[in-house]
Amino acid sequence: MNTTINTIMSGRRKRRRRYVLITTILSIISLVLCGLMLYLGNTIYTVEQIVRVLTGEQIKGASFAIETIRLPRMLAGLFAGFAFGLAGSVFQTMLRNPLANPNVLGITSGSSVAAVFCIVILHSNEFVIFIASVIAGLATVTVLYLLSIRKSFSLGRLILIGIGLDAMLGSVIAYLLRISSEYDISKAYRWLSGSLNGAQMEELPPLIITVVLCTPIIILLGKHLSMLELGEQAATSLGVHTDKTRIALILGTVCMIAVATATTGPIAFVAFLAGPIASRLVGIGYSTAVPGGLVGVILVLASDLIGQFAFETKFPVGVITGILGAPYLIYLLIRMNRKGDF
Amino acid sequence: MKPKHQFQAEHVVSGYEHRRVVHGVSLSIPSNRISVIIGANACGKSTLLKTMARLLKPESGRITLDGKSTDQYPPKQLARIVGLLPQSPIVPEGISVADLIGRGRFPHQTWLGGWTKKDYEAVAEAMEIMKITELANHNIDELSGGQRQRVWIAMALAQQTDILFLDEPTTFLDITYQVEILDLLTDLNRKHGTTIVMVLHDINLSARYADYIFALREGTLIAEGEPSKVISSDLIKDVFGLECTVISDPVSGSPLIVPIGRHHVNV
What we know:
The complex is a heterodimer of chains A (342) and B (267).
Chain A: H1 2-39, H2 47-54, H3 62-94, H4 107-122, H5 126-149, H6 155-179, H7 182-193, H8 204-220, H9 222-228, H10 232-237, H11 242-264, H12 270-282, H13 289-309, H14 317-339
Helix pairs in contact in A: 1-3, 1-13, 2-3, 3-8, 3-11, 3-12, 3-13, 4-5, 4-6, 4-7, 4-11, 5-6, 5-11, 8-11, 12-13, 13-14
Chain B: E1 7-16, E2 19-29, E3 34-39, H1 45-52, E4 60-65, E5 68-69, H2 75-79, E6 82-85, H3 97-102, H4 117-129, H5 145-158, E7 163-167, H6 175-192, E8 195-199, H7 203-209, E9 212-217, E10 220-225, H8 227-230, H9 233-240, E11 244-248, E12 255-259
Parallel strand pairs in B: 3-8, 3-9, 6-7, 7-8
Antiparallel strand pairs in B: 1-2, 1-4, 4-5, 9-10, 11-12
């Protein structure tokens, strides 16, 4: 008995160490990237100057560049990246399918339809666009969940309905763009491609508050989430309220996704890539929520830096993450096809 | 020894969206014994088991544990008394054996707390009962079907319930593993007094391993009792529509059915 306990303990300790180590490394990389976001730009300021600006000192030139341009951009990337990464990996774990993802299931498209509608038809201001896209994201997921529960929850039904919704909403976006005026089109496209450009300090509080409020709830539900992985029947017989858990997790993650999307636009593939990368790194048996969030941060910030500085033309962050994500999606589809998951 | 419990189904009607499968079954599970539910395909035996283990809500009637309807228990509290091994549980890809078995401890754990000493002991004990201690830190993907099934049962054991439901625990296993699993479950029942209720396909193994048999036909209970008293050629004809002779199992003395069929009949 005692030797068995020791074997189990040492195995768990080893896995735990790996989890802590990887999470620490991911945090450090995220911090370094945050630093680079403040450091790099048209003018390079010294670290000392940056610190002085951040602690509230006014330095001519540096204060403007850092406080009004680089800092909001960095914070938008940090919080939106975390939100996309965390929400994406929770969705994938909860629905036991790497394709099950706010992007694929039409939630992002729901937000996008509302935003594009507000831009090209109503010519609304930023605030209205923001509120409308958050509400539309939440409404889309409500419709999706209600359609997929019927008498009992079905995973397959949810994914199929989600893909259907996504296609439908996609065509609405295409229609709206078709009838819009030339000036509005470019604004709509900028929103749709996902960008940290022009992030402003006063737009950030809703995103930061949502992330700060929702993350602990999702971490608290981590154990319940890992039970859902065992399937509906096993989870129920182990005493999990599967419906309540799922609704709480969906609400928490979709709030994050909707608010992040409303702030930065849908940054392609981050929610989709972060989970699988995180679980590859930390190993399975651990919640990938936090590491997934950190991978999201790294993807967004690194892609934004690449988009800003690697080429002669500047690209919005969504273009770079799109280039990274598309091959992975194809790889995943091929692998699932080989395994006979379809 | 596990405490005695009164577990009953009262006039249970249950089924799926467009199809009612169980038509008013009342039964009482013998405490601290092994019961087996037998019946032809689609007779409602799995549905009945799922309803008793609260995976399905009965359309009417109720399931009671110690006189109280099971849906009145908080789920976690009930999960400390009644466990279920589903027919096809889903394996989280790449999880280690010990971690998977540890998930059976969920009803005993708090929201955030890690494993307590009791959790380690329960997992180790479950692994020892199922004889899989050497697999503790293996990846579940590396195991054979028989080993996996033992891991799943160990997970249900780590839950440390007094009553354990198993939905066809031996399906897809070679005969050797079938006997091995049933032997291990019998050990569990004899040593710990765990009440076991399972659905089995093989009538002869059911007759040998069950203390008590429930026979279902088209969603109604048509016979119950000790195997030696209920299993007869008439019952088998009734339940499965199969002509057979019943002899005494030369190994265990339990009833052994020998199907007749249309060919190879010498008598």
